[in-house]
Every structure is written in C-alpha cells, then in structure tokens.
Amino acid sequence: MPFTKNQIIHLTIENLSNDGNGVAHWQGQAVFVPGTAPGDEAEVRIVKPMKSYAFGRLEKLLTPGPDRIPVDCPVAGPCGGCGLRHITYEAECAAKTQFVQDAFARLGKLDVPVRPVLGADHTDRYRNKVQLPVGVDEDGHLQTGFYAGRSHRIVACADCKLQPEWMNRLAARACTLLEQAGASAYREESHTGLVRHLFLRQGWHSGQRLLCFVLNGKALPREKEICETLQQEFNLATILINENTARTNVILGSHTRTVCGPGYLEDTLAGVSLRMGVHEFYQVNTPAAEVLYAKARAYAALRPEDFLLDLYCGMGTIGLSMLPDCRRLLGVEIVPQAVEGANATAARLGLPPERADFRCQDAGAAAAQLAAEGTRPDVIVVDPPRKGCDSATLEAIEAMAPRTVVMVSCNAATAARDARWLCDHSYHAVEVQPMDLFPRTRHVEAVVLLQRRTDR
Q1: Edge-to-edge strand list for the sheet holding 29-33
Q2: What's the DSSP call for residue 30?
Q3: Would you state the pLDDT for residue 439?
Q4: Which of 157, 389, 410, 423 is the catalytic position?
Q5: Confidence at 281, pLDDT banded by 50, 70, 90
Q6: Residue 427, Cα to own-chain centre: how many angstroms?
Q7: Who's near 324: CB < 8 A, 6+ residues apart?
Q8: Quick check: 136 and 145 in contact, CB under 8 A?
Q9: DSSP for 116-157?
C-alpha cells in the first residue's frame, strides 16, 4: 500500500469524480479529496488508505485551480449539500456533463450522444421543499439544520442559500416558539423527544406556503397558539401535523392532520394544475423541472392516436403534461397519496378515466401484469428512484414493445445500466440530455431517448 493514515502529500487535482470529489494520483494510485477543484495544488492528509486508492482531506490549499471561487456559505463543507459550491457554475455544468458521459460510456458501454447539460436559470433559492431535522445546540436550545454526510449529526444552518429566505426565517422562529412552549427535540438514539422535522413547501408559481410539523407524538404543546402565530407571520396557506412514532429513519409517518388552512397548497407544473400536501413526490426545482418535462415531451414525440404509459408516475405530472399530444394516459405509482392526487387532478381537469387513469401498484408488478394482459402502449415514460428500474419492469417494457421509451433519471449510473439492458433487448439509445435540477450540488438528472429497433 502506497498510503498510510495521516500521511500528508502534495497533489495536483486533475478532475472531479462523479460524486464531486477531486481526483489526483500519487504513485499511480487515485486519491479522492472532497472540496477540491481541478487545477488545485494542495497538501492533502490521507484519512482512509485502501489497497489501490485512498480518501484524503484538504489540509492546505497551495495554489487554487482556475475554476475555484470563494465559498459563500460557512457550513458548505460539514453540511455537504452544496458539494460544488467552490467552483464556477460553468465548471459545474461541464463536470456534470462529464459525469453523465462517463456513466454511459464506462458503465453502460454505450456509444450514445450525450449533449451538454442544460443549466438552471436559478442557482440559489430554487428549492420549493425542505425537510429540516430538529435538534439542540451546545447550550440546549432548539435548532434546525442538515445532516452531515453519512451521519445523522445535525449541522446548524441559519441561511441555506438553496431554499427561499422565508423558510430559513420560519425555521428559526418555529424553534423559538417551540422552546417557549416546552417542546423537546426528538433524539433518534433513544427514541425520545417530540419534534422530529419541519417540512416546508412552496408553490413556485402560486407562492402558496405550507408547513408541517413531524412529531414523535400526536400534538404540540400550545399547538393552536404556535400555528396561528406562524400562519400570520409567514402568510402560510396551510399547517399540518404528521405523526411518526416509529423507530425509523423514514421522515414522514402515515397519518397527517390539518391544523390550519385546506391541508394542501396549489401550484402548476408544466401547465398542470396541482394540489399537494407532504406525501406527494414533486420536483424541488420547478423552473428546471419544466425544462426537463419539455425535453421528455419532445423525445416522446407522441401522436394523436397514441397510448402513453407512465411508470413511477408520482403525482402524474409528466404524463399529464404530455396528454394533449396523445389519446390515452395510464400512470402507475406505489405511493397511495400520490395516486389519489393524480386522479383528483385528472378529475379537476375534466378528464374521464378512459382518457387519464392512475393506479396504485408497484411499477414492476403493474408492468408485468399489463404485458401479460397484452397491453401495448405506443410510448412508455419511466421516472424511477435512484436505484433505477427493477428487472420485472425492464422485461415488461420489452414484452409490451413500445416504439419509444423515455427514461428520466436522477442517477446516471443506474440509467446507463437500464439503458444497456434495453439496448441488449430490441432498443437503440438515441440521445441523452443531462439536466441540472440541483445547482451547486453533486446531483444531475438525465433524460434518455430509446427507440425500438426495426431489425427485430
């Protein structure tokens, strides 16, 4: 092993890995260093030596690389959310393009054009949702923040630059009111304490605001007073209480009740009118998501007589945004509240079930059932979680034989894997479009166009 723990070495950072770490080499072995930029010359402390590579920590920056900029958040390092806040946005976009190119070339082994990433218009204050864990500081006062990387240790953050300022101000005010009322913070290790999280959501276009207290219990002390104060001071459309008394890392429990307002907020996404509470999946960057949906719609190239199947459909927004182009939409999603919301949206839009219908079912099981029934959609859209599509879903897609598959993915590695499978089974990868829905972070989305080969 060329490395020993706490060894300090002089390195020049060459590029970024797909998790945003700087990459350098020492005696032919790779060293991964968070918080560094290409071109940086630095002294690096080895913190985790492995057989053929090592993880290091930036000890001293000797010469900054050409893309490095000052970090404008005091907790960007320990928080870890803004993993690319130390480089220019132009360099970030170039890196994210490379992340996706590498995934499809090296992991998927696909010779497919990967276009330059479509950057976001807003690189700060773009998040429409945040889930803030509640804890205590060194003096025992309530605080909110974010979990440090690979831990559940809260890093206090008074002003996260990725979310609207009112969310930061409300979190601080809520902690004050909760503390005055005698509410305690939840302690995960002992499963004691009351307040687990603050869940905040905003309609990007409507401006409506939602607050949900996630509790290890049923109610807040002085609940009516706290909620009325926050509603008035922050112009909240609705306030909810979510009960999560399970010993789990899952944030939300299954039961939610309304304290103030209608229990939901309203907004639009890609022209689709929506109502949402806390259980529904909704893209956190509305303007960038609308660009992504437009690209997915263009890739789908639907015809008036087409039948569209939307798997992992969430609230149904992708499929509903495409419905003007086709005859029929069927969406599948495993989260009951999301399916209820999607069907309610379709009803409000005056769409009969034979035109737009949403089913609560596992995507793989539903796809297999549809394939067995002989269902033949013309176009299938999939937007799976980070783990990608399961084998049942991919096998059913092949059996249903749509002419076009549009894959929306938040994980280029699993998207490349799934695209490789489809390319081994009757499909051709035409193009990949990376999309930056999460500026200043390491995350990048991709939209993949696959078409059925005519030689099968």
Answers
A1: 8-12, 41-49, 53-63, 29-33, 22-26, 15-16
A2: E
A3: 98
A4: 410
A5: confident
A6: 27
A7: none
A8: no
A9: PPB--S-SSS--SEEEEEEEE-TTS-EEEEEEPTTS--EEE-
H or E stretch covering 447: strand 445-452
Residue 71 phi, psi dihedral angles, 5° rounding: -85, 125
Contact 412, 99 (CB under 8 A): yes
Per-residue pLDDT, averaged over 207-213, amounts to 98
E-strand ranges in 13-52 read 15-16, 22-26, 29-33, 41-49
pLDDT beyond 80 at 265: yes
pLDDT tens string 302-311: 999 999 999 9
**What does the radius of gyration of the chain's CA atoms come to, in whole angstroms?**
24
Using DSSP bridges, classify how beta strands 328-333 and 307-311 pair: parallel, antiparallel or unpaired: parallel
In a domain, 83, yes or no: no
Task: Name the DSSP letter for residue 448.
Answer: E
Task: Please check whether residue 194 is in contact with residue 216, taking contact to mean a CB–CB distance below 8 angstroms.
Answer: yes
* Residue 104 in domain: yes
Same structural domain, 291 and 440:
yes
User: Is 410 designated active site?
Assistant: yes
State pLDDT tens for residues 138-189. Answer: 999 999 999 987 788 899 999 999 999 999 999 999 999 999 999 999 999 9
Rounded to whole angstroms, the Cα distance separating 415 from 425 reads 15
Pick the residue with more confidence: 2 or 45?
45
Which helix or strand (DSSP H or E) is residue 197 part of? strand 195-202
235 and 153 housed in the same domain:
yes
Q: How many domains does the chain have?
A: 3
The pLDDT of residue 282 = 87
- The distance in angstroms from the start CA to the end CA of the chain is 51
Whether pTM exceeds 0.85: yes
